Amino acid sequence: GLSYSSRLLQQTNPATIQHVVLLKGDDAIPVALTRERNRLEIQAPLPLMEVAARYLVSGAKHIFVGYDHVAFLIALLLWARSVWAVVKVVTAFTLAHSITLSLSALDLVNLPGGLIEPLLAASVVAVAVENFFNRRIERRWRIAFFLGLIHGFGFAGVLRDFGLPQDALLIALAFFNIGVEIGQVAIVAVVVALLLFVDRLAARGPVAPARQPALVYACSALIAGLGGYWFIERTLLV
C-alpha cells in the first residue's frame, strides 16, 4: 500500500488545495488534498482468496437487503408445489440476471439506474398481478428469464457502487454472482418450505394438501402494493 500526507501548504494558507497525481502505468489518478482531507491512502492489491471471500459475502448480503429482488422471487413461487417447477423458474432467473450482470459489470452494456430501478419495481407488480390470472407455475420460467434480465442490471448497479478490483475483475464478478445465488437459494428454500407447511396445516383429513388461493391472492396483493409504492417512489418522488 501507499500513504501520502502533506500539511505544509495548508499551514501557510488553510484554504490551499493541493493537487496530487498518482501515476499507475498509463493511468493518471488525480486527488485533491485539503485541510480536512490531507492524507492519500492507496491499498495494496488483495490476495485472490480475500477478493473471492469479500465479494461472495457482498453478493449474498445484497440479495437479503434487495427487497425488490426478494419480493420478485416470492411472487414468482407463490403457486409452486413441485421441485421441478421451482428448479426451472430459479434456473431461468439465475441465467438471465447472470448474463446482464456480467455484461454491465464489464461495461459492455449499460443502462441508466433511473430507468432500471422503476423497471425493477414494475417487474414485481407484473409477477404479483399475474398470480391472480395464472396458476401454471411450470410455464413461468419464461417470464422469470425475461424479467431476470432487468434484475441483472440492478445487481450490476450495486456491484458498480461496491467497486471492482481491476487486477481481479473476473474473480470478483464470479464470486459476487455466486454469493447472489447462495442468498437466492436460501430465500427460495425457506419460502417454498413455508408454503408447503401451510398447505399441510390447511389440509383436512385424507385429502392431499393443496395451495389455498386466498393465501396466494393475499400475498400477491401485498407484493403488488409494495411494487407499486417502489415504482412511484422511483419515478414521481425522485
Structure in words:
There is one protein chain. With 238 residues, this protein is mainly alpha-helical. Helices cover 65% and strands 9% of the residues. It is built from 8 helices and 4 strands. It has helices spanning 8-12, 48-65, 67-77, 83-105, 113-130, 141-162, 169-202, 213-235, and strands spanning 2-5, 18-24, 27-33, 39-42. Helix 2 (48-65) runs parallel beside helix 7. The chain starts with a strand and ends with a helix.
Helix/strand layout:
Elements: E1 2-5, H1 8-12, E2 18-24, E3 27-33, E4 39-42, H2 48-65, H3 67-77, H4 83-105, H5 113-130, H6 141-162, H7 169-202, H8 213-235
Antiparallel strand pairs: 1-4, 2-3
Helix pairs in contact: 2-7, 3-5, 3-7, 3-8, 4-6, 4-7, 5-6, 5-8
SS-based class: mainly alpha
Low-confidence stretches: none
Gyration radius from CA atoms, angstroms: 23 Å
Biggest beta-sheet profile: 2 strands, antiparallel
* Strands side by side in the biggest sheet: 1-4
What share of residues are in beta strands? 5-15%
Helix content: 55-70%
The string of secondary-structure elements, in order, is EHEEEHHHHHHH
Number of helices: 8
Q: What is the general shape?
A: elongated
How far apart the termini lie comes to 40 Å
Average pLDDT metric = 85
Total strand count, please?
A: 4
Sum this structure up briefly.
It contains eight helices and four strands.
List the defining traits of the structure above.
mainly alpha, 9% strand, 238 residues, two-stranded antiparallel ribbon, two-stranded antiparallel sheet
